[in-house]
Amino acid sequence: MFRRKLIWQLYPSFLATTLLALIAATTYSSYTLRTFYLDQLKEELRLVGDVAASQVALTLRTGTSADVDALCKTLGQAGSGQMRLTVIASDGKVLGDSDENPALMEDHSNRAEIIEAIADGLGRSMRFSPTLGRNMMYVAVPVSEDGQPVAFVRMAVPVTEIERALSRVYVTIIWAGAIVAVCAAVLSLLISRQISEPITRMKRIAQLFAQGQLDMRVPDAGAAELDELARALNEMATQLQDRILTITRQRNEVKAILSSLGEGVLAVDSRGRIVSVNKAAAQLLGIDPIAAQGRSIEEVVRNVGLQQFVRRTLEGDQPAEGDISFPEEGGRFFHVHGAPLADPPTDRAGAVIVLSDMTRIHRLESLRRDFVANVSHELKTPVTSIQGFVEALLDGRPDDPEQTSRYLGIIAKHAERLNAIIDDLLSLSRLEEGAEKRAILFEDVKLRPALEAAVELAGVRAEQKRIRVELSCDDSIRAKINAPLLEQAIVNLVDNAVKYSDEGTTVWIEVQPQDKGVAIRVKDTGCGIPREHLARIFERFYVVDKSRSRKLGGTGLGLAIVKHIIGVHGGHIGVESIPGKGSTFTLHLPQ
């Protein structure tokens, strides 16, 4: 909708008021001036009429109508030449006229000035004279005898000169009015601008306030009301600036707190549309926090459990808790806590959902259960065997040395396996305890001596299967290591390579410098590991072929020990394997 500026509302009003006043003053002045001139002329004609009436009365008493006509012509010639004198009898008959023959003139009893003179003793009228062809003013004075009018003396003068004089005055008044109107228009514009300019300036500064420039201030306008408005605007800007700074500081504090939280925080409105998502929630749910704004939870998170929990929290009046799983994302688990948000006008503003990632704890719990089950299973086999053969010895014949020797050999074998399992478990425990307490010492030494020691320790089993162990390591390669632990890791890898390789094959140990550390590769050409087992072979007691592992004396803890040893060195382990062609284990040590 089009709206005019304030100056174009004030200016036309001021100008119209001034012009109306000027027109009214001009009209009144013109009317008053014209009335003054006509009244003055009427008074002059009345005076002349009174003088002429005394002479006409004398003539009527002593003379005839011809004498009256002669008197009229004499008085008319004695005047200014513009005045016409007419004597009219009481019955309307013209007795004499200064310009015309009275015998040819019609009855004048119906003339307005005659009628008015009969009624009021003096008559006046203005009209167009057909005889003379111009506007005339007529003034009639009665001629009385014994208190009764016997005739009327009528004076007539043209008003052309008066009209001309008035026209000149009117032109002067119009020019003066035009000059006054122009001055009034300019003055009205200046006054309107003076009034509107401070308001326009306040509007511009108020727009800057709306744009956030609250440090601007409205100057004084000079008028008391506008100064009060300016002070009110400045006070409003100051309060707004303080409140915005407070809100911004509080928002930044809340944002910083939410961003630093490890838990994911998700806020939704009463319709289930996302209002806010912190960084942790965006990472946990794998969503874009900016793109998620204003969208429903069903559009953003494709998980029925979380969707139902949000709806339940919005519909309830009390905080809610629950556990949600994301099986499609590799088996992730969350503990969620929801609380409804109250808004006094609507009594329902939305809800806040807090997500705690329990995946690691859940997996650790699962590993703990598996570990307990595996330890129980691994320990139960040798213990049961030992117990069984001990009972057999106790119940058997002690005079049969061959059977006793065989039973004792089996017991010794299972005791050795039991001891190996306990040693490996103690090694893992010491590694974890040392990593936590930082009790393991590391030295920057050459790698080759430690690797040669490992090859020598693993050489006995390799020689039994006629397997060669070849070491390729430059003497200059150094690393910050704990030599005994690294030797143990290499021995375990070489021992596994020897166990699962055929006789007469070769196991290679290669050391290669890298940009950020050193890579130690242990490569064999054995049976290999199926792809589906590669992700779990470093778990405790996890073995690909349990029957073969027990037959070869494995405990299922060797690779777990290797992984922990490389972990305390700050590195990591990787594996590549092709079934039937062999495996390559790579230890990455940091520089």
UniProtKB/TrEMBL annotation:
A cellular component term, taken from the record's GO annotations: plasma membrane
GO biological process: cellular response to phosphate starvation
Top-level taxon of the source organism: Bacteria
Coiled coil: none
Matching PROSITE patterns: HAMP, HIS_KIN, PAS
CDD domains, alphabetized: HAMP, HATPase, HisKA, PAS
Enzyme class, UniProt record, top EC level: transferase
Annotated TM spans: 169-192
UniProt-recorded name of the protein: histidine kinase
